[in-house]
Amino acid sequence: MDAPAEMPAEIPPDRRAAELPRESENRWVFADRAEDRTPYQPDEDEEEQPRSRLLATLVAIIVGLALSLAAAGLWLGDVRSADVARLPIIGPQLATMTPAPSRLRIDVKGVMTQLDSGGLVLQVNGSITNAGKTAQTLPRLLAVLSGPRGVALRWTVAPPVASLPAGRSVPFESVVTNFPADARSLSITVAH
User: Fold this and answer.
1) DSSP readout, the chain?
2) pLDDT tens-digit profile of 88-135?
């Protein structure tokens, strides 16, 4: 800011603070520029800032609550795709990310036979049933044979058909050899 201008000689020194400038001739007495005396008016951005911060805070709170509810529900393991879709704001997006439950049912039975040579043969028979209302693509199956020392043998079982119509079943079979005699626990799951 420039150095203050000198006061005109006609205004006594004791009246300088009380004297108000006249719009036309003494504008420079108390201010360097006329716009310095105009009343403060906030910019448009300054007026909108509190509203936009409030809106951002409310959106963050709502999204946080929705995600917390979804996480709690998934943690409990009792949230289905239809339940997630009812969450406010982000429910439809979460429903597309939640995998639909498989409508395939796998029934399995394993029969272990000892050969005359002393070796063991495990014959796995089962069926895959489509309990859904639409045709399902059949995945590969993962078979695991385990015993007291852990997993003894893993193998995959190819499905007999690529797609299974609704309400239909298809049998599958697999035979394995060369496993420990104490391996007696068999599990069949969908291979990933």
Assistant:
1) -PPPPPPPTTS-GGGTTTPPPPTTT-TTTT-SSGGGGSPP---HHHHHHHHHHHHHHHHHHHHHHHHHHHHHHHHHT---HHHHHTSTTTHHHHHHHSPPPP-EEEEEEEEEEE-TTS-EEEEEEEEEEE-SSS-EEPPPEEEEEEETTEEEEEEEE--SSSEE-TT-EEEEEEEEE---TT--EEEEEE--
2) 777 777 667 666 667 888 999 989 998 888 889 999 999 999 988 888
Sign of the Cα torsion 162, 167, 170, 176 reads positive
| Residue 7 near residue 21 (C-beta atoms within 8 A) | no
Backbone angles phi, psi at 37, to 5 degrees: -95, -5
d(CA 6, CA 62): 61
Alpha carbon distance 113, 120 (integer Å): 6
Closest CA to 147 of 187, 176, 190: 187
Q: Which CATH architecture has domain 104-190?
A: Sandwich (2.60)
Asked whether the whole model's pTM tops 0.85, one would answer no
> Two tokens at 163?
């797609």
